[in-house]
From TrEMBL:
Source organism of this protein record: Sphingoaurantiacus capsulatus
Encoding gene per record: acs
Database matches in NCBIfam families: Ac_CoA_lig_AcsA, PRK00174.1
Domain AMP-binding enzyme C-terminal: 528-606
Molecular-function annotations in GO: acetate-CoA ligase activity
Residue ranges occupied by any AMP-dependent synthetase/ligase domain in the UniProt entry: 81-464
Record protein name field: Acetyl-coenzyme A synthetase
Source organism phylogeny: Bacteria, Pseudomonadati, Pseudomonadota, Alphaproteobacteria, Sphingomonadales
Length: 645
């Protein structure tokens, strides 16, 4: 794809837009030249108990980030109370079940407000107080949003754990955040298969003696074990409490949630977001990036277990008074037209999904898309990984009939909301480019030494200014926050991504430059997968690298060295895959496991990952300098082993 391939803002996107090109340029300039003035103009987007007088108060060296620090507000009020007078009877959440035969559900803003207040009261009754951490492990049902908002209402900090994670992964996260409470459901369903959530929680809690209360939502309806004195049924408890609960006034810098994400080293980090800055960022980006229009139905296909679900299923849309659709299922169940069927059924206006889903559906041809009425659609969005131009063009032509704007939104768990994206009514598109920075965002390219690179070029993507939605710390480990994001290049936030800026100043994100693998938009650290592999008693050592994958974007290639005397067998490969599923999740299962008696190492004992990547990609024509290896013959053996796969 050449940079000349430029697709003008479609006429459909210009009509009624909140922001045209001149508007974008003016607001962006204001956000750079007079940030205080810009943010003073924006803070009225939220209902404050006490309006802040201080805007940004931050430094990247030393690292100390605060926004709106003297403001007071409650996040649930933004999403509920302030809509009651004007849109109490409007649908807040539409729920579509895993099975197309199950009835869908809707909740109005008034109903959601009542549910959230009741759950907040139940949580209080269980002993939850301001500042407590609460783990939420839920299927994609409205009660997941209720749970998040109920925590916010009482000032508790939620930590949502994706429903696909294993008991080990849940317990690690509960322990790290020192949670005493869990909200879960009996079971979920995905693609026609039950997901045993309560069973997984019970297993996780065997190693979490600190948990004193578990609130269980009945969804599947099949019997589950309930521990006396610890487990509480939501449908029973909700009958015993009033549907009113005063929101806890929170300082803007009080924590709203923790969300674990993988990095290049160690175990997953608890990314901490605070109340005022995060809420304003979620609200503002939802307004401009999705160019949300009154009355529209917004569907983000992510799970609430990821940041995309936090910001663009729950906090962004609800704070704006939108109707948000929650889908329990998957794109190819019961067949590959499910997405388009749901769009037709609920007359979806905004559709926001991941490139991996588009690539998988693209393979199925046009027919499953074309047979459904998509005339309600106004905007298409993409998130989670770089979108290749082929998938972009398929989205544009087949789904959007060359009429709908596509927003390719680059951001991270750490950033709280979108940082680089086109604005649909303002910025011409280029297939595969995330285009331009959002207001207040200042991206730059640096070389390996941290020197700025000017003009059209490639390099490492850094951000030189803070924005309100930025994470504030790693829960319980501020030093790790500083080390991970601010030590590679002093005085800048390092994203971990590589990028290119073209001659028009458009940004093209090229993917991670650290040891993070992006499998179907899910972030996984190589170190995490390696530690799951070496947990097997017969394993001496493991090294994991990414390989290109047609659908998933990246696949996982694991090199594993068995202990001396252990035979490398297919059974061992199976056991190792099982080990990863048990320790982390099925999404982390390696696509290839390459058993090898040795790994290529430098004389100082460092594994040469560059070489392992090349061998995994079958690109061994130019391995570069291998003279520093302690034993160069290892490389030839690995190449032979790769050939035999
Ligand atoms: C929101 C989310 C963050 C990483 C990020 C980058 C990749 C996300 C992207 C994208 C290219 C896009 N990424 N969106 N790469 N274009 N539009 O996905 O958060 O799970 O923390 O992942 O995902 O590599 O650094 P998270």
């Amino acid at each position: 794809m050449t940079d000349e391939t430029r697709i003008a803002v479609p006429a459909t996107a210009k009509a009624g837009t909140h922001c045209d090109l001149a508007g974008y340029e003016a607001l962006y300039a204001q956000s750079m030249e007079n940030p205080d003035g810009f943010w003073r103009d924006q803070i009225g987007r939220l209902d404050w108990v006490k309006t802040p007088t201080v805007m940004g108060n931050w430094s990247y060296d030393p690292v100390d980030i605060k926004w709106f620090e003297d403001g007071v507000l409650n996040a649930s009020t933004q999403c509920l109370d302030r809509h009651l007078a004007t849109r109490g009877d409007q649908t807040a959440i539409i729920w579509e079940a895993d099975s197309p035969d199950a009835p869908s559900r809707t909740l109005t803003y008034r109903e959601l407000h009542g549910e959230v207040c009741r759950m907040a009261n139940v949580l209080k009754g269980m002993g939850v107080t301001k500042g407590d951490r609460v783990t939420i492990y839920m299927p994609m049902i409205p009660e997941a949003a209720t749970a998040m908002l109920a925590c916010a209402r009482v000032g508790a900090v939620h930590s949502v754990v994706f429903g696909g994670f294993s008991p080990d992964a849940i317990s690690g996260r509960i322990q790290d955040a020192d949670c005493r409470f869990v909200i879960t459901a009996d079971a979920g369903a995905r693609g026609g298969r039950p997901v045993p959530l309560k069973v997984n929680v019970d297993k996780a809690l065997e190693s979490c003696p600190g948990v004193t209360g578990v609130l269980v939502v009945r969804h599947d309806g099949k019997p589950v074990a309930m521990a006396d004195g610890r487990d509480v049924w939501w449908h029973e408890a909700r009958e015993t409490v009033p549907a009113h609960c005063a929101p806890e006034p929170m300082g803007a810098e009080d924590p709203l949630f923790i969300l674990y994400t993988s990095g290049s080293t160690g175990k997953p980090k608890g990314v901490l977001h605070t109340t005022g800055g995060y809420m304003l960022w979620a609200n503002l980006t939802f307004h401009y990036v999705f160019d949300y229009r009154e009355g529209e139905i917004h569907w983000c296909t992510a799970d609430v277990g990821w940041v995309t679900g936090h910001s663009y299923i729950v906090y962004g849309p609800l704070s704006q008074g939108a109707t948000t659709l929650m889908f329990e299922g998957i794109p190819n169940y019961p067949d590959v037209s499910r997405f388009w069927q749901v769009i037709e059924k609920h007359k979806v206006n905004i559709f926001y999904t991941a490139p991996t889903a588009l690539r998988a559906l693209m393979r199925e041809g046009e027919a499953p898309v074309k047979k459904h009425d998509r005339s309600s659609l106004r905007l298409l969005g993409s998130v989670g990984e770089p979108i290749n131009p082929e998938a972009w063009l398929w989205y544009w032509r087949t789904v959007g009939d060359e009429k709908l704007p596509i927003i390719d939104t680059w951001w991270q768990t750490e950033t709280g909301g979108v940082l680089i994206s086109s604005l649909p009514g303002a910025i011409d598109m280029k297939p595969g480019s995330a285009t331009k920075p959002f207001f207040g965002v200042c991206p730059e390219l640096v070389d390996a030494e941290g020197q700025f690179i000017e003009g059209p070029a490639s390099g490492n993507l850094v951000l030189t200014r803070s924005w309100p939605g930025q994470m504030r710390t790693v829960y319980g480990d501020h030093e790790r926050f500083v080390q991970t994001y601010f030590s590679t290049y002093k005085g800048m936030y390092f994203t971990g991504d590589g990028a290119r800026r073209d001659e028009d100043g458009y940004w093209w994100i090229t993917g991670r430059v650290d040891d993070v693998i992006n499998v179907s938009g899910h972030r996984l650290g190589t170190a995490e997968i390696e530690s799951a592999l070496v947990a097997h008693p017969d394993v001496a050592e493991a090294a994991v690298v990414a390989v290109p994958h047609d659908i998933k974007g990246q696949g996982i290639y694991a090199y594993v060295t068995p202990n001396m005397g252990v035979e490398a067998t297919e059974d061992m490969v199976k056991e190792l895959k099982f080990c990863v599923r048990e320790h982390i999740s099925p999404i982390a299962t390696p696509d290839f496991i390459h058993l090898t008696p040795a790994l290529p190492k430098t004389r100082s004992g460092k594994i040469m990952r560059r070489i392992l990547r090349k061998i995994a990609e079958n690109d061994t024509s130019n391995l570069g300098d291998i003279s520093t290896l302690a034993d160069p013959s290892v490389v030839q053996a690995l190449i032979e082993g790769r050939k035999n796969r």
